[in-house]
Amino acid sequence: MTDEPHDAAATEVVADCPRCGKPLPLCICDSVEPLQSRIKLLILQHPQEQDRALGTARLTAQHFKDAVVKIGLSWPSLAKALGRPVDDPSRWAVLYLGSAHAAELAHGRDVLAIDSKGQPLPHQDAVLEDIEGVVLLDGTWSQAKALWWRNAWMLKCTRVILDPAAPSRYGKLRKEPRRDGLSTLEAAAMLLSRLQDRPDIETALLASFDRMLVRFRQVQKELPELAPKPKKRDWRRRRG
Ligand SMILES: [Zn+2]
To answer: How far away, in angstroms, is 117 Cα from ligand 1 center?
Structure first.
């Protein structure tokens, strides 16, 4: 955890980037090119998600002019979380976590809209074509689950699950207990590109992610206290 003495010393001498929140040696903000996206993005971050080094919420949002990142546990409505009116919450997709059978259900689709019982909705193409915004829950699996349960308005949104063809590019850098195993950035890349047939969005986001990981590995060698290896006692694993 960050209250260890050597971590405290490191954060005192190295400033954080005001845009991505990462210690400056890990920041790749200058290389981020803004993208146009018809589908809007809202990222809700659990207040205890503290992985500044490898977290991707703010980096993801930086790719889009009007993406919103909110830190908290609960909001009374989608409009309140987003900070502006929403005509029809059902046209917003929430990436749902209980996707244990995603691969079986998906039948070759990598984005699937499901009902409250976890079954695929009829008329997938029509439902997904109507989506105008995406909500992502940022944190460990248990943190994301807490966000899901504390925000009843998500039941009015359209639940979607992902069945990614490839595992997360985090590789061994992070133990991710979630079934779909993707970072917030990778999930955004998949959803925003598939839902509006914009492969360029996925390409750009994943390129940024790769740059972030390259930078992380460099910093790991030079300033290891800023880019710690996952610890055996890591709470992420214990709670996973
Ligand atoms: Zn930055």
So the answer is: 40
Q: What is the 3-state secondary structure (H, E, C) of the chain?
A: CCCCHHHHHHHHHCCECCCCCCEHHHCCHHHCCCECCCCEEEEEECCCCCCCCCCCHHHHHCCECCCEEEECCCCCCHHHHHCCCCCCHHHEEEECCCCCCHHHHHCCCCEEEECCCCCECCCHHHHHHCCCEEEEEECCHHHHHHHHHHCHHHHHCEEEEECCCCCCCCHHHCCCCCCCCCCHHHHHHHHHHHHCCCHHHHHHHHHHHHHHHHHHHHHHHHCCCCCCCCCCCCHHHHHC
The pTM for the full model equals 0.86
- pLDDT single digits (tens) 202-216: 999 999 999 999 999
C-alpha of residue 194 to centroid of ligand 1, in Å: 27
Structural domain spans, the chain: 32-98+107-224
* CA of residue 88 to ligand 1 center, whole Å: 34
Distance 2 CA to ligand 1 centre (A): 20
pLDDT reading at 3 higher than 60: no
Mean pLDDT comparison of 4-13, 76-85, 171-180, highest-scoring range: 76-85
Q: What is the 78 CA–ligand 1 centroid distance (Å)?
A: 27
